[in-house]
Amino acid sequence: MTDSFVYAAARTPFGRFGGALADVRPDDLAATALTGVLAKAPGLDPAAVDEVVWGNANGAGEDNRNVGRMAVLLAGLPVSVPATTVNRLCGSSLDAAMMASRSIETGDAEVVVVGGVESMTRAPWVLPKPSRAFPAGDATAVSTTLGWRLVNDRMPREWTVSLGECNEQVAESHGISRERQDEFAARSHHLTDAAWTDGFYDDLVVPVEGVDLARDESIRPGSTVESLARLRPAFRADGTITPGNASPLNDGASAVLLGSGAAGDAIGLAPLARIAGRGSAAVEPQLFGLAPLDAAEQALARAGIGWADVAAVELNEAFAVQSVACVDAWLERGLGDPELVNARGGAIAIGHPLGASGARILGTLAHRLRESGGRWGVAAICIGVGQALAVVLEAA
C-alpha cells in the first residue's frame, strides 16, 4: 500500500439559481474545473491521468450519459483518459475523491482527477413514462432540482419529508433556536466575504469563459442577525428555517488533483496534503443532517487521531441548524475551538451545487492547512436520504 495525496484544487465561482451561470451547461462547467485544476500542473502530461472520477447528483438533463467522460472530451484531454460519474447526492464529489484515493493506495492508479458539477438552474423537469400507451389521465412533470422525486409508495412517510422539515425536526430535538441559526448564517457570509477580500480564493477559483462572474454569487456581506430575522420560515409557519439560514440553490463545478507520492515528479508539484482517513455513515433519512458525526468519527479513528489534534474543519453548511448541531457535538468530543470550522466561509454564503460541494470542501481544507500551518483537518458533508462522508487530511 502507498499513500494518496492532494496536489491541487480548482473550482468555478458558484452562481446562484437563475444567475450568472444559468446559461452554462453542466458538462461545460465540469470541463472548466477539470481544465482549471490541470492548468495548475503544467508539467503533467494529460495522457498520464489514469482516471477521472466525477460527482453529480441529478444526472437527468445535460449532465446525463456520464458527465465525467463528457468533461474529459470537452476539456480536450486525450480520448485514452477514462472517466466515470458517481452519484451519492450531496456527497458525490467527496465520494469520488475517496474512491480515487483507494485506487491510488492499492496501486491501481498513480494520477487521478476527481471533482463534481451541478447546475441546479438547468436541472430539467421529468415526465414519467407510462407503462401502457396513451393513458387517459393527466401526467405531472416533476422538478429534478432538489429533493425526493417520483417517490416509491412503499417508503415510510417520515423518511420522505422535505429536507427543510427534516432540519426543523433537528432544531426541535436539539433545542437550537432561530437566533443561533441566523448567527451562524451571518458568520458564513462575513467569513466568505473576508476570504475573498483577503485573496484566499484567488488560487482556488478559475473563471468560466464568457461569464462575468468574479466570485461566488450568493454572498451577502451585509447580512446580520437582525436582517436575517426578518425572513419568514420556509417549511413551518412557526418554524426556524428560512432562505437566509439554509444553503441556496446553485450552479458550479470543482476539481481536485490526486496522486501517489511517486507521481509528484510527473505532476511537477509538491503535495498539499495526504489523505489520512475516510469515513462513511448512514442514519434514518430524516436525520441526514447529523450523519457527519459518525462519518467524522470513523475518519478520525482511521487516521489515528482525535478531535483535539484537528486544526481545521470544512463542514458543508446544508442548513445552519445541522451545522450548529454538529459543531456542538464536536466541541463536546474535544474540538478545541468552534472558529476552526469553516474559517474561510461556508455553503450558506458560497453556495451548494450538490455534486460539486464535496470536492470544494476538500480543496479548501488542503489550502487552509497550508495557510495556517496546521497538521490535521477534517472535511465532512451530510447527504440526503440519511448519509454522510468525511475525510481527514494531514498536511504534507
UniProtKB/TrEMBL annotation:
Its EC number is 2.3.1.9. Keywords: Acyltransferase, Transferase. One of its GO terms (molecular function) is acetyl-CoA C-acetyltransferase activity. Residues 6-259 form the Thiolase N-terminal domain. Coiled coil: none annotated. PROSITE patterns: THIOLASE_2, THIOLASE_3. Pfam families: Thiolase_C, Thiolase_N. Residues 270-394 form the Thiolase C-terminal domain. The active site is at C90, H352, C382. Belongs to the thiolase-like superfamily. Thiolase family. This is Probable acetyl-CoA acetyltransferase.
